[in-house]
Amino acid sequence: MISGILIAVFGVMALIFALLVVVLRQPMRAALALIAHMVSLAAIFACLEVHVVALFQILIYVGAVMVFMVYAIMLLDDREASYAHVFSRWLVPAVIVIAVLIVALGAMVVQWAPGEPAAAAAGPTPFSFSAFSVEFMRQYWFHFEVASVLLVIGVVAAWSVISERH
Predict the structure, then answer these.
(1) How far are the Cα atoms of 106, 142, 149 from residue 137, in angstroms, in the given order?
(2) pLDDT given for residue 78 in this prediction
(3) pLDDT tens across 57-108, in order?
(4) Which residues contact 121 (CB under 8 A, 6 or more apart)?
(5) Residues 75, 85: Cα–Cα separation, whole Å
(6) For residue 26, what are the CA distances in angstroms to 37, 91, 94?
(7) How far apart are CA 94 and CA 163, in angstroms?
(8) Which three-class secondary structure string do you get for the chain?
(9) Which of 14, 87, 102, 125 is deepest in the core (most CB within 10 A)?
(10) pLDDT digits over 114-161, tens only?
(11) What span, in angstroms and rounded, lies between the C-alpha atoms of 83 and 68?
(12) Rounded to 5 degrees, what are φ and ψ at 24?
């Protein structure tokens, strides 16, 4: 009971922070809203008792990726006049999309009856990290390595741009 309430609270918080990421104009405030969104997602994972995923959510996304994003934002020129407005021009379209999503989800909940059988008659197969990692390394190892090389190239390119400015 309490975990369901906590999941709902953190879910609402995640939605609010995701909306703020879209509508906030200043990059640093949007990055802080994204950090709060990632922490809310980690809290949802913790409430679902998937503590490893919650830990990786904090360590990888908040700890590593957001540090790079905040570092890149710090390199931006914040004296630009377009940052003077608090909210982005995407505020109204974002609110409209959120309203449409809420109506669509509400319609789905109203149509769904709890007694209906699940879509998969046999039921879901149990998930295991070892099976996932073996399948991932069989099919997507090259994509994973290309992504890591591209990240390194991006860091080197950013470093060269920074060193040319000074």
Answers:
(1) 39, 8, 17
(2) 61
(3) 888 888 877 777 777 777 766 666 655 666 767 778 878 988 898 888 888 8
(4) none
(5) 19
(6) 17, 13, 17
(7) 38
(8) CHHHHHHHHHHHHHHHHHHHHHHECCHHHHHHHHHHHHHHHHHHHHHCCCHHHHHHHHHHHHHHHHHHHHHHHHCCCCCCHHHHCCECCCHHHHHHHHHHHHHHHHHHHHHCCCCCCCCCCCCCCCCCHHHHHHHHHHHCHHHHHHHHHHHHHHHHHHHHHHHHHC
(9) 14
(10) 655 555 555 566 777 788 788 878 888 888 788 888 888 888 877 777
(11) 21
(12) -70, 140
Residue identified by tokens 């007694």 is 115
Between CA 131 and CA 138, with CA 135 as vertex, the angle to 5 degrees is 145
What's the rounded Cα separation, in Å, for the pair 33 and 23?
10
